[in-house]
Every structure is written in structure tokens, then in C-alpha cells.
Design brief:
It is a single chain. By secondary structure, the chain is of the alpha/beta class. The chain is built from 11 helices and 19 strands. The chain has 2 domains: about 1-55 and about 345-380, Urease, subunit C, domain 1 (Roll); about 55-340, Metal-dependent hydrolases (TIM Barrel). Strands 1, 2, 3, 4, 5, 16, 17, 18 and 19 form a 9-stranded mixed beta sheet that branches. Strands 6-7-8-9-10-11 form a 6-stranded parallel beta sheet. It binds zinc ion. Zinc ion (ZN) binds near residues 97, 155, 194 and 223. One of its GO terms (molecular function) is metal ion binding.
């Protein structure tokens, strides 16, 4: 079956202007200014009043739930298919977090397979906050080489009282195993780093980069908008060649305590001369959003929201005057490049047909296609999880 989407303003994320996009099976066959096919086998879609962008790539979602830091009643639930699809997310990487006792990598992998069975592209990180590393096969390299969905390791927690307080040698071993596993399987072998609020910030990563041959680009530290001091250190980290990731899920209390809203963070990053190809957003969806008091006691808890991923990009455009073709890179081409997902993050021939149609003025998500299949049309999910109401 062929689908021909006519007259969309294509932001690929390079601005291509008005284009026709032809989709065959799971792939984009062609993007040209005029494609005409008259055939009963072609589904025609008029997108004259729409902007087409690549499907979003969310590098951190806790698909089986997270949290639990406040006891058994504070474990967050697992993600629903439509939490992702209505948020425009067609590619995601799933991770465990603090809890690797009641949550397992087996469960994470099977949940990823479930989302893939519905038509998404869901990958996983091996490991968790906890060290020594828990894996599926018993070995990180084997997980990355032998399990199709496994593309790296994370979240490895540093500078956080909830982490395992790794020594630099431990982090170096994890990073080299992930790197070699990635090389052997043609994957990124990326090391997703959960950056906590501790004062040591990037020092452990810097130590590994200084004392070993592992490049700074092997690391993908997230939550860098947690506070102003960390954010400034993050800008310096990119000047040394590193990538940083900002977390879009947040709440008003976090902002009061100094967290930087992603849209404002991206504006500040670009104004400081930062390279758009070194900064990304992720939702941290279905994580808990805990706040601790000075004594380390949990004082509040909410659930991370996948819809925040594109909401922050929209705020970049509507409130921070960042062009869409720039801001959208933070959730499309740049995370796809960091994660080395070659067919993702860009609208071009031979890439996977993952795309989002946006309303031109409001930038609301109107339709979502993943691997050639419409999952959302006219803001309504066409496919729901088996147990979703
Ligand atoms: Zn985290």
C-alpha cells in the first residue's frame, strides 16, 4: 500500500518548503515538489494546512514505571501506548531507574517488544542506577550485541544519593563494555548518565575521559537543566565535545527550586554559542518527579509526562523565537545521531516513515505516522493498547 501526502510544509528538519511525500510500506520512498500517481492503491492525504516534521525521538522513557523512592505507594505505573503516540513519539529508549528490585530488565525488554508490536520503534538501555550492573544475559557487551532492542546502558546514576556512588574505574569499565558492544553490533553503545544534584557534577565523566581512551561522546548525561550551576557546567561540557540532554517533564515546584525550563534553556544555550547538534530534550516519561527537603526526606511526587517533550519545543518556537527547524532538532535529528539510529530523526527517502503533522498556527499535533502506519489522525488515536479504555 502506498500513501501520498500532498502539499505539506516539510521541516525535515531542514526546511524543504511545500512537498509531496510518498510512503511505501514502512519507508519514505520520495519527497518531491510534485508527485502525481492516480491509482486505487494509493491513499491520498491533503496536508495543505499542515507542517510535517520527523517523528519524535525520546531518549529516556520509563516504560515500565519508575519511582518508588517514597515506599511501596509511590511506584509509578507503566506507560500506555497512546501516552506516546499522542505526544508524537515514534522512537524511544526505555530505561530502569532507581528501582531494579521490583522492576527488571526482562520486563523492560518485553514491554519494549509490546510497543514495537503496535508499530513504534522502542529500544532499551541495559543496567539501571544500581551497580554492579544488572543485565539480561549476564554481561553488558552481550546484551548490546545479542539483543536487537538493546543499544546502550543507563541510567547510570552519578552525583546522586540514590546512585551506587561509582568509582571512575567502574564507570570506565561500563563505558568501554558499552562502546565495544556497540562497535560489534553497529549500535551506539551509548552510556546514558543520570545526573543527580550532587556537587561532583561532570567530574567523574571528565576523569574517565582524561585517564582512558574513551571519547567524551560515549556519554549522554541527562537532567542537565536540574539547576543553574549544573546547566552552566553542561554548557562547558558541550564545549569539550560532549552531548547534554535536558528533561522536559517538570512541575512548578521544580521551577521554584531553580530547575530551568527546557525552552528557556535551549534559548540560553544557543545565545551562548552552543551547537544545536550537541543538545537534546527527553521526557523522562513515567519517572517519578520527587522533591526532597534539605534532610533528604521525600516531600512530593508526580509522574513524568511524555507530552512535555513536544510542548517544550512548541514553547521554544512560540515564546522564545527559536525557529521550528532549529528547535525540532532537539527531539529528532540530534538524538537520532547521538543514539546512531540511522533511519530515524530525518524526513528523507529510504528513512523510516515516522512523521508528525502539526497545525500550522498552533503547532498542535494533528496526526502521527510510525513506520508507515497512522497511529493518530485528527488528534485521535487510531490504535490503542489492548487494555486501554
Ligand atoms: Zn534519571
Amino acid at each position: 500500500m502506498l500513501t501520498l501526502i500532498k502539499n505539506a510544509e516539510v521541516v525535515a528538519p531542514v526546511k524543504l518548503g511545500k512537498q509531496d511525500v510518498l510512503i511505501c510500506g514502512e519507508k519514505i520512498l520520495a519527497i518531491e515538489s510534485l508527485i502525481e500517481i492516480n491509482s486505487p492503491y494509493v491513499a491520498l492525504v491533503d496536508a495543505s494546512d499542515k507542517i510535517m516534521v520527523p517523528g519524535f525521538v525520546d531518549s529516556l522513557v520509563h516504560i515500565t514505571g519508575g519511582g518508588g523512592e517514597g515506599g511501596f505507594t509511590t511506584r509509578t505505573p507503566e506507560v500506555n501506548l497512546t501516552d506516546l503516540t499522542t505526544a508524537g513519539i515514534t522512537t524511544l529508549v526505555a530505561a530502569l531507574g532507581t528501582d531494579s528490585i521490583s522492576r527488571s530488565l526482562n520486563e523492560l525488554l518485553v514491554k519494549a517488544k509490546e510497543l514495537n508490536a503496535y508499530g513504534l520503534s522502542c529500544y532499551i538501555y541495559s543496567g539501571s542506577y544500581h551497580l554492579p550492573l544488572k543485565t539480561i544475559t549476564g554481561d553488558l557487551q552481550s546484551d548490546i550485541v545479542l539483543i536487537d532492542e538493546c543499544i546502550g546502558v543507563g541510567e547510570v546514576a552519578i552525583a546522586d544519593h540514590r546512585g551506587s556512588q561509582p568509582h571512575f574505574r567502574e564507570l570506565a569499565r561500563i563505558a568501554s563494555d558499552a562502546r565495544v558492544g556497540g562497535m560489534l553490533s553497529g549500535k551506539s553503545g551509548i552510556v546514558s548518565i543520570h545526573m543527580g544534584p550532587g556537587n561532583s557534577m561532570f567530574s567523574l565523566i571528565d576523569e574517565v575521559v582524561e585517564k582512558t581512551d574513551i571519547p567524551i561522546s560515549q556519554f549522554y548525561p541527562t537532567h542537565i537543566n536540574r539547576n543553574k550551576v549544573l546547566f552552566n557546567a553542561g554548557i562547558d561540557f558541550t564545549k569539550r565535545g560532549g552531548y547534554i540532554d535536558l528533561t522536559t517533564s517538570s512541575n512548578s515546584m521544580a521551577f521554584e527550586l531553580g530547575e530551568i525550563k527546557c525552552s528557556k534553556g535551549l534559548k540560553e544555550f544557543l545565545d551562548s554559542g552552543g551547537d544545536i547538534q550537541q543538545i537534546t530534550f527527553s521526557s523522562d516519561g513515567h519517572a517519578s518527579l520527587p522533591e526532597f527537603d534539605e534532610a533528604g526526606n521525600l516531600i512530593s511526587l508526580e509522574v513524568g509526562n511524555e507530552g512535555s517533550l513536544f510542548r517544550e519545543v512548541r514553547d521554544c518556537v512560540l515564546h522564545e523565537s527559536i525557529p521550528l527547524e532549529v528547535a525540532i532538532q532537539a527531539i529528532t535529528s540530534t538524538p537520532a545521531d547521538v543514539l546512531k539510529l540511522k533511519n530515524k530523526g530525518r524526513l528523507q527517502a529510504n528513512n523510516d516513515a515516522d512523521l508528525v503533522l502539526l497545525e500550522k498556527q498552533s503547532l498542535h499535533i494533528e496526526s502521527v505516522m510510525s513506520k508507515g502506519q497512522w497511529l493518530v489522525r485528527n488528534q485521535t488515536p487510531l490504535i490503542k493498547g489492548t487494555f486501554e479504555s
